[in-house]
Predict the structure.
Amino acid sequence: MSTIVFHFNVYEPQDFLPGDDSFSDETSFLIDFLYAIDNLTTYGNLMLPQEHLLHNRSTWSAISSKLSEMNVPFYAHADMIFKIIDFARSIVHQDSSVIPLVVSIEAEVSEEAAMSEAVTRYINDQVVQQVPAALKRTIIEGHSKQCVICLEEMAILSEAACMPCSHVYHQDCIVTWLERSNVCPLCRFQMTSTT
């Protein structure tokens, strides 16, 4: 069965002219995304402090959200995020407070892959219809936790949604997440229609 083939490249542009970066006293990465599929190119950008990009788990969520916003299929995110972070680590330097990165993604879609994508979307839609039944309501006890989707704190004694894999999120956050993807944002546990 055919799949979508991604040609993916991360590089530092040679013609970058830094703008007014006085807003930050720490080094940041400015990531420009270019996603081309079926003669349509989508552009996006994301500014992440160096410390976040290189050492913070929330970076996964921020980059994945940007890729989803640009309609890059979720199953391709992990490889792309690994490559972005690896490249960023390889070019860290202190001579500029803004380090530019360009992420160029080209997708080749065959007719079979388009059909497969439609089937996957249909299956995911069926799973989403069953999401509320699969999630359990729970109360945050002991100490507060962070919802890794919105990055906000879930206070002690507040209500949350618990996935079958035991990871906890805000109810609205995880339901919205599962409308785009059928996997847990932390452990990639896959929700199925039998859950």
Summary: The helical segments are 50-55, 58-69, 77-91, 111-129, 131-134, 171-180.
